[in-house]
Each structure stands twice: as structure tokens, then as C-alpha cells.
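Example record

Each entry pairs one chain with its bound ligand, 4'-deoxy-4'-aminopyridoxal-5'-phosphate.
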Amino acid sequence: MTTKYAFFEGRIVPIDQAKVSIMTNAFNYGTGCFEGIRAYWNNTKEQLYVFKLGEHYERFLRSCRIIHISLPYSVEELCGVTVELLREEAFRQDTYVRPLAYKADSVIEVRLHDLEDQFAIFATPFGKYIEREEGARVGVSSWRRINDNAVPVRAKITGAYINSALIKTDAVMSGFDEAIVLTQEGHVSEGSAENLFLVRHGKLITSAVTEDILEGITRATLIDLAARELGIETVERPIDRTELYVADEAFFCGTGVQIAAITEVDRRPVGSGKIGPIVAQLRDLYFSIVRGEKEDYLDWTTPVYAAAHAM
Ligand code: PMP
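C-alpha cells for the complex follow.
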């Protein structure tokens, strides 16, 4: 099943009608921001669960604030139209939701002020983001992560993703599944479009939010879950490149990538070279929660269909 509708210019329309001109400012200069949200199909309950919907729209509005976009919607309204769109699509499979806010005018001027802001959402069925989720082979990129003083890193800015695209393509063309990217200072920042965790001496380590990372929702979820469910503390701090080579375990996390074990960095095995015990436990926990299988965490999910459809 493919995409049939979009929320576009204030209403749900057939996807063919959700078109912008080539003169659109955001198309020319990347002057927009977006979110990536996943919804998981639970076959037993016949329910589609959107994961951390409110948190995604809170970040979305923070991205908008950073790039001077002001939308006439609250977080609650944005959640509402998303559920409405998904109901209209009637998806019964795992789905990716893409909200976009952008500078809609047709003007040949590079600025953010005095331009019309627009908002759109589409959704599409979506499976794995990287093929080898249980054993990714990665390399440290020769590209550096964008710096917060050049392009805001804690906003999901459309134009900024040229950085991710360069990193990803270089990695894949070099035979890797993904890349890890360093900050301008040379610390480990994150993956091309995902956050990174290491396990060392029984603790989780992840780059601090001041290391030019996107402040990931999955990252925050895992810090919380590791403490609550596994009793494992996460240290948020700068990470050196060679810590990647001596870590016991390593993994990427993000809405798209979900949780992907890294089993090789720069042609050196991570730990045993196989998926590690902590990553494996976190993956099991995460997938059961996002699919609405764990009662205690149902409030992290938003059911799309009416309760009568669910068991
Ligand atoms: N970093 C970047 C650059 C990303 O694009 C993403 C995906 N949104 C992430 C990290 C992970 O963030 P989240 O867990 O909120 O999806």
C-alpha cells in the first residue's frame, strides 16, 4: 500500500494535489524543517501505534522557532491532524510519518523573515532503514558534522541534511553500512542520521548534547529505559575516536534506524564482533514497547484507530 493523501495547506487532500512550485524558497535554499515519526502495526491488537508523537511535535516546534517559522498549530492540534491523516490512509503496517514546515514564497532572496510559512504531512509504509540492524559495519567519515554556529544542529533543518547525505553516500560507496561522524573538534558526534551509544565497563556512553548532535527522541528514550529496566546508567560526555575501537558494544539509535548494533568500526571488531548483550536487550525492549506490547509503556504510544478496533 502506498501514500494516498497528504495534509497540505490546511486540509487533507489526495497526494497528487500536494505539489509545490519549483520557485518555492524552501526547495531552492533548504529553508524548512521536518520530523520523522514512526507508527508500528500491532497485529494482535489490530492497532497502529504512533511512538512518542507529542515529543516529536514539541521538537518540531522548537526547530520552527530556531528558523523563524511560526505555525498556527499547537502540539495537540499537530498530533490530531497526524492521527486523522493516518486514519484516512488506513495503514495496517509499519509506517513513517513526515511533517514538514517550510518557507513557501517564490522569492529569489535568501532570508527567513517576511516569508510565508506552510505546513504539510505525508505518511508512507516503511521497514528497515539499514539492512544489517544486528551487525552494521561502519567507518568514521572524512566529512565532519555541521557545527551549531554554522547550521543549528538541534533543529531538523531540511537543508542541513546535505551533510547527512554526503556522509551516508561516502560510507556506502566505501563498502560500509553507515558512518560515524566527528565534530569540528574531532570528537565523536553521531551517525549520518542517528545517535550513537557505546558500552564501556558496563555503562552506556553517548555524546553530550553539546557535541553537535540532534537531540534524539530515541536517545532520550533509551537513556530512560536503560536506567529503569536494566539499571544501567548513561554517561553523556565528549567521546574520543579511539574509544570506538575499544568499546565493548556500540549501537546507533533513531526513529528511522531504530536500534542497530554496530559490530565493526574502521575494520576493527567491536567487542566480540557480534551483537552484544546490552544492545540485544535494549532492542527487544524497544521493539515490544513501540509496538504497544508493554502495558506499562502504552502512554508512550498513540493509537490511531478507534478503541473498538483494538482488543
Ligand atoms: N541525528 C540525526 C542527524 C537525525 O536525523 C536523527 C533522526 N531524526 C537522529 C539523530 C535520531 O533522532 P530521533 O531519535 O529523534 O529520531
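The radius of gyration is 20 Å.
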